[in-house]
Design a protein that fits this description.
The complex is a heterodimer. By secondary structure, chain A is α+β, with helices and mostly antiparallel strands. Chain A is built from 12 helices and 16 strands. Chain B is of the alpha+beta class. Chain B is rod-shaped and about 110 Å long. The chains are: A alpha+beta, B alpha+beta. The interface between A and B is large, with 74 and 76 residues.
Chain lengths: 421, 382
């Protein structure tokens, strides 16, 4: 009988059930989408923060002092130590390899640009643009196009295996060259494929594939420094501890957390004779910005949960209030308060479950859509979210119905049937 | 003539009691069915509050995040053309162009020699200002007396490995410096020695060649500032630091877009809540509707009555909700950004009009459905 009552109630009152069901579905959908976005936003924003460029730098251990003002090497070190280019792919073999977004080696040398009349000394910078490397079975692409996203090129980017070069904007104006022209570097003609604009010192330099610069310098495999762009966890008190003083489990925890400091430590292990350090301007501020945005989204998610809980309770209260004649009739026929409440709660439960499942699916789609349209990447929905969302839907629906059910059950059937409620 | 007059009279009579009756019905409806009216008003208030808080946050979050982004330091740099020093009044001009919306810090650089002939870059600057501009500098101790120097970690290893006082020479002039602290940034600052501008100028006579500016504001405001500075300082090169500007624009844009998506979802949910509550409320009163109709009220009048009721509810709800919403936004600002979100009164008309519109829709919709039903049917409880 109980089952039949519930079944018939759903079959015959489609409109009312639909209204309440839609409210629950939408509420659950919004809640799911917001929770999914909020849990993933940290990851997404920390990827966006990588547009600030590299947050780690690797230099040779025995490095000489930079004599550099405003990014211009005044006395380009002609000697001193170098890193070995062959060691670089090992970065992708580290524990936190998946957090390495990209890296770019740099090798500056000063060269004479031979213009018929006047020869000029300029800095020639060798780097990877978008180089394909292999480590083990893994293939990956890295270079300044990933680590320095604010570099803009008019014309084309040179191929990493070519001998084409990019000319800095300022230097191009001074020399009167444009994309497609030729330039003589150290007595050899090279094609300028693009004009580079960075807003930094590179605007007055020539940027070329690393192999070309190594050849000019006469030191194959030499790299002066490597910029590494890594996804890191905001630094906390634990991150600032010296790994040397940590013991056993603590050391493991430090080593296995993607702090900038521990990734720097691992970079040092991966590349022999190197010194890795975080670029504090980028690495330190990332954490604050990230935690602010995460905090904001968390609070907004709370607001969303609150609004959807309210919408669900309002819809349930209305749905139950509308049925007081029916309740009155049942009471007049001798139904007890307990069995009436059980019936109404069973209906609410069924609605919550259906609305919860449909709403979860809709919310997941919505979250994906938000991820794709805003961040150009997928927002992953943790499967563990499903039971949590379903439980929330049931609890909220019950809480929303409770007051209305109590009132409906307490009604004097006479008033209810006469329509005087 | 007389028939015209009498119809005029009837018209007036039928209008005059209408207005007072109309108001009376509105008031009584609210007072007599207090519970239902209160729950409808509550839904309205909550929805308006949530909408206000979200809109306020959306408008204000840009300013709040910009402040956080200024921790990245300078976004505009002024350098003398071809390495020339800047004119002496450059800093004053830059500061007046900023008008308090940011920091301008002068830097002067030279290459000095250590006692054993090593080249090292020495910078003179306003150390108190640098401390505010470059908050990420990790410094063991800031210099505060004359001849005190701040040493980059790599420079320290070269010039003063044991922390002892050291000598530097520049074009034959010697200076004896006292290392008080070390500086670690992970960038070129690590290879430099920093002095106060006063010491630096007394020693070298070199004027600042660079001004680093951390300007707050939108990218249009910063571009305007760059224009203004280039005109005021014709001998200098004023350029934005693209790395900082572009990163900021991107992260800010994405955050705003996410917040906009969240805000529209939340506002839609709140509107839905109002809709279902109000529809229930009006539906519940179909007997009133039937009685009015049976007593000869026109459909227009009845619709007008319910619409006016809904509009009044929407207006009251919007005003109360606005107050609560502003408080919620301020609280979120304080919790997350340690600065309250400023109330934006230009949000009020949007919330006001939006609330009334949602209320009207939810009142008119059930009326539209009930119009086709005979009053007798409703009164008989069918």
């Amino acid at each position: 009988m109980f089952g039949r009552l519930v079944y018939e109630s759903f079959r015959r009152q489609k409109r009312r059930k639909l209204l309440a069901g839609v409210a629950i579905t939408l509420g659950v959908g919004v809640a799911t989408a917001m929770i999914a976005v909020a849990t993933d936003i940290g990851d997404k924003i920390s990827r966006e923060l990588r547009t600030y460029g590299a947050n780690l730098i690797v230099t040779p251990q025995e490095d000489t002092l930079d004599v550099q003002i405003g990014g211009v090497d005044l006395e380009p070190p002609s000697d001193g130590a170098y890193l070995n280019e062959a060691d670089l792919p090992k970065i992708k073999g580290m524990f936190w390899r998946n957090n390495i977004v990209g890296f770019a080696p740099m090798l500056p040398v000063s060269v004479r640009v031979n213009d018929e009349a006047d020869a000029k000394t300029v800095t020639l910078l060798g780097t990877y643009f978008s180089k394909r490397l292999t480590f083990g079975k893994e293939d990956f692409v890295t270079g300044v196009r990933i680590t320095h996203p604010w570099w803009k090129v008019r014309g084309a980017w040179p191929d990493d295996n070519s001998s084409d070069v990019l000319l800095g904007e300022g230097l191009a104006t001074k020399l009167g060259r444009k994309a497609g022209d030729e330039i003589k570097i150290a007595d050899e003609a090279h094609r300028v494929v693009g004009i580079l604009s960075t807003g930094g010192a590179e605007d007055n330099q020539i940027v070329a594939p690393l192999a070309l610069v190594q050849q000019v310098l006469g030191k194959p495999g030499a790299v002066r420094r490597v910029y590494v762009s890594a996804l890191t966890k905001p630094e906390d008190a634990f991150a600032r501890r010296d790994p040397q003083t940590l013991r056993g489990a603590e050391y493991d925890r430090w080593y296995c957390s993607p702090y900038a400091a521990s990734i720097a430590f691992q970079l040092q292990e991966a590349i022999p004779h190197s010194h890795a350090e975080q670029i504090r301007q980028i690495a330190q501020n990332e954490g604050t910005v990230l935690s602010r945005i995460k905090g904001l989204m968390l609070l907004v998610t709370l607001a969303a949960l609150f609004a959807s809980a309210l919408a669900v309770s309002a819809a349930m209260a209305t749905a139950i209030f509308e049925r007081r004649t029916e309740v009155g009739l049942m009471k007049a026929l001798g139904a007890g308060s307990a069995s009436l409440a059980a019936l109404l709660f069973a209906e609410a439960l069924l609605l919550a479950l259906i609305g919860g499942v449909v709403g979860f699916a809709g919310g997941a789609l919505l979250a994906r859509q938000i991820g794709r349209s805003i961040f150009d990447s997928q927002i992953t929905i943790e499967p563990v979210l499903f039971p949590v969302i379903l439980a929330i839907a049931v609890i909220v629906t019950f809480a929303g119905s409770a007051v209305a059910i109590r009132r409906a059950v307490k009604f004097d059937p006479v008033y209810a049937l006469r329509g005087e409620a | 003539m007389s028939s015209l007059q009498s119809s005029d009279l009837i018209n007036r009579r039928s209008h005059k009691p209408h207005t007072s009756m109309f108001l009376r019905m509105l008031m009584r409806a609210a007072v007599l069915r207090r519970g239902r009216a209160a729950s409808a008003l509550l839904a309205m208030v909550v929805a308006a509050a949530v909408a206000t808080a979200m809109l306020n946050l959306y408008v204000d979050v840009q300013a709040k995040l910009r402040k956080e982004f200024r921790n990245y330091g300078a976004n505009v740099v002024v350098v003398g053309k071809d390495g020339q020093p800047l004119p002496a009044d450059a800093l004053t001009k830059a500061e007046s162009a900023l008008a308090g919306h940011g920091l301008a810090v002068p830097f002067a650089y030279i290459v000095a020699r250590t006692s054993d002939g090593q080249s090292v870059v020495v910078a003179g600057t306003d150390l108190d200002q640098v401390r505010k501009l470059d908050s990420w500098w990790s410094v063991t101790a800031w210099p505060n007396t004359s001849k005190d120097a701040l040493l980059g970690t790599r420079a320290a290893a070269v010039v003063s490995p044991e922390g002892k006082p050291f000598d530097l020479s520049f074009q034959g002039h010697l200076i004896h410096l006292n290392p008080v602290g070390t500086l670690r940034t992970g960038a070129s600052e690590d290879s430099r020695i920093y002095l106060s501008l006063e010491d630096f100028e007394n020693w070298t006579g070199v004027q600042p060649s660079t001004i680093e500016i951390a300007a707050s504001g939108s990218s249009e405001e910063i571009n305007a500032l760059i224009q203004q500075l280039s005109q005021a300082l014709p001998g200098a090169n004023v350029r934005p630091i693209r790395q900082i500007m572009e990163g900021e624009a991107r992260v800010l844009g994405k955050t705003r877009a996410t917040l906009a998506a969240a805000a529209s979802l939340i506002i839609a949910t709140a509107a839905l809540c109002v809709l279902s509550t109000l529809i229930g409320w009006v539906f519940d009163r179909r007997r009133d509707f039937a009685i009015m109709k049976a007593l000869g009220a026109s459909e227009g009048l009845i619709s007008g009555f319910f619409a006016a009721e809904a509009a009044a509810l929407g207006a009251v709800g919007a005003l109360i909700g606005f107050g609560i919403g502003v408080a919620v936004a301020a609280w979120i600002g304080r919790v997350n950004f340690h600065a309250p979100v400023v109330p934006r009164f230009n949000v009020l008309p949007i919330v006001f009009v939006g609330s009334i519109a949602v209320a009207l829709i939810s009142a008119v919709l059930p009326i539209f459905l009930l119009r086709r039903v005979q009053p007798a049917m409703i009164l008989r409880g069918e």
